[in-house]
Every structure is written in structure tokens, then in C-alpha cells.
Amino acid sequence: MKDLLRTQDLSRADVDLLLDTAAAFAANPLRSTDALAHRTVAIYMTKPSTRTRLASETAVAHLGGTPIFIRGDDLQIGRGETIADTARVISGFASALIIRTFAQSDVDELGRHASIPIINGLTDDDHPTQLLADWLTIREVFGSDISGRKFTYVGDGNNMAHAWLTMGAIMGAHVVVATPSGPWAPDPAAVANAQKIAAKTGAIIEVLNDPEAAAKDASVLYTDVWMSMGDPESERSAKLTALSPFAVTPQLMSLTARDGIFLHCLPAHRGEEVSAEVIDGPRSHIWREAYHRRTTIQAILYHLVRGELQGSALFS
To answer: How do beta strands 204-208 and 174-178 pair?
Structure first.
């Protein structure tokens, strides 16, 4: 496995290895300071970022490497240079490239033409690095045995909903996504991909339109912002109206399991997708989750540059 382009690229063995290594980096961030010694990692972002940028640059530094941050308008892509040519040039200077952008097709093309690992730090379709941080947080709270547990996402059927379904399927979990029907439901292709994985792992995949049924007895209640980067402002009123029943309120949280927790990939809009009482309350684990953006990206870099991830053949 050369690249991490999509969540579905990972096998269960890969996820377990990455979570084990990330846990070790959480305990001792400087345990492998020579892994990227005298090497550089390019970090190219056409979308604003807080956690992904900080996590990526810190992860590279903790591995002994030098991060090179590149804004969207810094490269010649903006003046017509092809993605393929850009991939070949970056491959001559860096040992890996982390990219955060809009189109998944751009990330896929970089992967085809680069000779170095390409890591998807977020696209409009997927967010694999976030899901690893989520599942490390889940493992810290509940341990590795997730039998009998239910993991629920409520809100917009966006890239996070897609990634939540896919990673849950890989982990053999009971995963639920609850969204409005219609334009803000998850992509049927993403649901079908998760169901295909689940058929091999024994996972249970549910896609609902009822937030209360989704939250009932859940060990995790997860949400994301309702207006993502790139969403048309003209849709705001209709979208917020459709999503308002899916807000994570104390009442919705009360339906979860006795030991249920709240997660959010951040940034959060208190009073929209989640109430302040929940996100700032005792059952919220968002800050540990955010911290694990660094530990998991550190683990991805550590294993990808060493060629130690096997990849998944589930979609071949």
C-alpha cells in the first residue's frame, strides 16, 4: 500500500496497527525522532484548516522531519500546470504529501502519478485521518471489544457520514447514520461500499431518518457541522431547517447508553448541530479526539514511508 487516499483503502489489520502505533505516540510523542530524519513532508491545503494542519506539521516534526506547508495558491497548478506534473515534482523533493482539498479525483490523480505516499487529509468525499482519530478515542474509552455496542452519526450526510460508515464496516461494528431524506442524505454509492465491506466483516450498517431511533442505546453519538466548506450559502436556510431535528441536544444524548460519549470532528457551531451543554459537558471527548489527529497522522506517516501497510483488497 503506497497511499492512503480513501478510508476504504485500509484493512482491519492496517487499522489495528495504526491505532497501536498512535497509542504509543500518544504516550511518548518523541519515541521515533529518526523516522523522518533529514527528510521533508509536503502539506498542501486548498481548504482552511486548524486541526489537520497543526496535527500534520507536529507529526512530521515529532518524527524528525521537516514539514513544508503549501497553500492552494502557492503552486503552479493555479497557472495551468497539471496535477500529474506537480506530483512528479513534489516526489523529487519530499518523502510524502498530505493533501486537504475539495475534489477526491485530485487526490486520486496525485496518487497515480506520485512516487511518494499521498495521504488524504480531507476531501469532499472522505476523511480517513479523522476516522482513525475517532476510533483511537473510541478504543481508549471502551477498549478493543466493541461487541454489543452501537456507534451513531447524526446530521448531514456528508464526507464524515461516508467515512463513518466505511470505518465502522471495516471494524466489524454496528454503525448507524441518521440524516434527513433527500439532498442531505449520504451518497448511495458510499452506503453500498460500506455494505460491501460489512458483508465480509460482519458489521451492521443502518441508514435512518429518525435521530431518536439512531441515538437509542448508542455508545457514541457523533455529529459534524451542518454547513461545510463549499456548501452554497443559498441552501443555508433550507438545510438548517431540514437538519434541525438532528441536533445533538441533552434530550437526544439522554437516549444513548449509560456510558455513551459524544464526539465531533470540529469545528463546532454550538446552538446548531450540537448544544453547548453536550459538547462542553462531561460526556464529551472532543479534545482527546482532536489530540489524536496528531498521533494518528504520525502513525500513518511512520508506517506508510516504511511500506508496512498492506491495504485492502475488498474493492478490487
So the answer is: parallel
